[in-house]
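Before the break, one more example. Copy the sequence into your notebook; we will annotate it together after we see the structure.
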Amino acid sequence: MALDTMNHRNLKQFDEAEISGLHWKIMFVSGMGFFTDAYDLFIIGVVMAILKNQWHPTPVETGLVTSTALLASAVGAVLFGRVADLLGRKRIYGIEVLVLAAGAIASALSPNIIWLIIFRIILGIGIGGDYPVSATIMSEYAGKRSRGMLISLVFAMQAAGLIVGPLLAAALLTTSLPKDTIWRLLLAAGAIPAVAVFYARRKIDETPRFKLAVEKRREKQAQSVCPEGDFWRGYSCLIRNPRWLIRLLGVSIAWFLMDFAYYGNTVSSPLVLGALAPHASLLKHTLTQLWVFVIAAAPDYFVAAMTMDRLGRKFIQWFGFAIMTATFGVMALVPGIEKLVLPFLFIYGLSYFFTEFGPNATTFVYPAEIFPAGTRTTGHGIAAAMGKIGGFVGVFLFPILLSRNGLPRAELAAAIVSALGIVVTVLMLPETKGKTLEELNEEAQAGGSDDSPAEKLLPQHARQAEPSRT
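Here is what the structure looks like once it is written out:
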């Protein structure tokens, strides 16, 4: 009882705490990883536009180069997510950026297309590992009134990567450097911020919630369905509880659908803009991409962060999916819209606005909140992995759809999956704003007032209360 009282008191202090210097430090150190992630994932589109004239890759090879890092990041997310629940967040935090940096440097030294694909796999493992650990560390330190904003700001550091990537590419393209040197410099530069944050990550203390969960297990004061055990036990924990399973499926499917549409459009943006202006130079395409990011994409990360704890995750996600459906649908169904420069750029930019403001932010926040401490990074890792698999499919198929069927067919695919995202969000996910992580955990075990419609359809025996767990 004394331990339970201490746990409750300590957690309440964190839940009610105002944003402090420690929160901002964790946000920045964690967010710099996402700066690197965004830079490395999105710069490959520019690199492949250069290599198209040097190595003459086939459409399939182009799809593999631009998508293998995403597929490998699914492996990294599952692996690092589970290990962080077994060993603790602190013990592995920072290792993922070293893997990322090694992959970036090796990619820059690639002698041919096959080696580039292999080294992008290493890069992707590091990128995937960053998702569950960074999100969970921020979630477990944040107060309940600012948790959504702080987790969103970690992810919002992607905006800087989106801008720096094409900005650096444009700067190098204006020089007299050989194209072979330019693409290698672009890939190698991705290692710099990753190495820079390694030491700072290693200095972050273990999260209070994970330490308390371990302490309770050691004292045997709480009966847990997810005790310390082997690698696979955490996955079965999430599957056995019907409510956790619904939430796991909800965040995973939503992330898969979002990344299919988002990464397909973003990584292939030089190809999309090429359809808009086929005779323009790579420099002009890169600058156009930069302006789309600066005006229509980057601010929306921060709009999402500022409204996350006011509007709520569920509304932001389904509304964002709805606007994505509409904008992708317009690009797919209006004949010749790619020839109308200003209307096309407006619609294309609008799709970015509501992607960043909507599900691109919430799919990262949701899984850092709705699972118990013993499986939080495991659940987030699974959801992130499904997202990256969706991104892999989108990035792999987009160049093929563009080359065979043109822009309308590719955007129609994005519109369909965005519409499915609305359905998944409304039916399978709860609202989490203003609630502590422990309250959300209890709802998943005993049934709360804000269940998702899918959870309300569970049979009565699945809705019985179970002992509270940290």
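The CA atoms of residues 13 and 191 lie 38 Å apart. The first helix runs from residue 2 to 16. Try to locate both features in your own notes.
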